Amino acid sequence: MNLTPKQLRILKLIRDWRVRHGYSPTMQELADEIGVSKVTVFEHVEALIKKGALVREPNKARSLSIADGMSVPDESRPLRFPLVGRIAAGNPIEKVEDTDEIDLGDLLGATPEKAHSTFALRVEGESMRDEGILDGDYVLIERTQVADNGDRVVALLPDGSTTLKTFFKEADHIRLQPANPDFEPIRVKFCQIQGIVKGVVRRY
User: Which of 9, 101, 184, 197 has the fewest CB atoms inside 10 Å of its own CB, making it the most exposed?
Assistant: First the structure.
């Protein structure tokens, strides 16, 4: 697909914003990031929609998303994932937003293809110890809002805190199961799944 440098930058901003925040930027936020007028951003966005690179829901704020099957190249940072905070693997703690990144090139010395819907969290606590997820590890999370029983998930609890546990949907509640007998399961009527663990990175 033939994209201008400005259009490609807008695509990357939208992708990274959705990974980091869970929603799309507004036209004004895009304009502020790029340093152009809102009208200019609107023109670029319309062009990207016509080219099939972006999708927008009419009359809905923050509805821009990358079109299915559209790969946004990022050759200059092939091994970096947004590091969006810390995740409790003990008692739930408040999620901390951050603007840092985790660079797998530095950690692994390898060059796997970047997963554009993946972000990183640093583990705090020992409740997932027996699953091999230890305090200080980095977990790579694929953003999704659905989970199957047995998935290791990042869950947003009703009190606004997040936790890393194994997900089980039971008859009348959800059980978030630790992997350490020193910790009790968390049982809630509802929680919001924010992602599923796809990998663990550890530095020695």
Answer: 184
Assigned domain for 62 exists: yes
Supply the Cα-derived Rg of the chain in whole angstroms: 19
Identify each DSSP E strand in the chain by its residue range. Answer: 54-55, 65-66, 80-88, 93-94, 100-103, 118-124, 138-142, 152-156, 161-169, 174-177, 186-188, 192-201
- SS3 letters for 86-100? EEECCCCEECCCCCE
Q: How far apart are CA 157 and CA 161, in angstroms?
A: 5
Closest listed residue to residue 43, CA positions, set 7, 5, 2: 7
Catalytic residue set: 127, 165
> What pLDDT, in 10s, does the model give residues 175-190?
999 999 999 999 999 9
| Structural domain count, the chain | 2
Tokens for 187? 């049982």
For residue 30, the SS3 value is helix
DSSP secondary structure letter of residue 181: T
Q: 98 and 59 in one domain?
A: no
Burial of 39 (0-12, 13-18, 19+ CB in 10 A): exposed
Do 108 and 147 fall into the same domain?
yes
Q: Is the pTM value of this prediction over 0.70?
A: no
